[in-house]
Amino acid sequence: MSDLQIGLLVIGAAIVAAVLLFNWFQERRFRKQADAAFQAPVGDALMQPGAVPRDMHKRVEPALREPVFDAGGADVVVAVNPSPVQVDSPPPGGTAPELRTATPTPPPLTQPRPAGPTVAPPPAPYDELIEFRIRIGSDGVRADAFADAINHARTLGKAVRWMGLPVGAAEWEEIQPWHDVDYQQVVVTMQLADRNGAVQEEQLSALCSLLQTTAQTHGLRIACGDVPEAIERAQAIDRFCVDVDVLIGLNVVARGEGAVNLKRIVHQAEGSGMVLGVDGAFQLLDSRDEPLYVLCNHDAEPFSATVVEGQTSQGVTLQFDVPRVPDGLKVFDGMVAFGRKLANEVGGILVDDNLRPLTDNGIEKIRTQLTQIYERMEARGVPSGSRRALRLFS
Question: N or C: which end of the chain has fewer CB within 10 A?
Answer without folding.
Answer: N
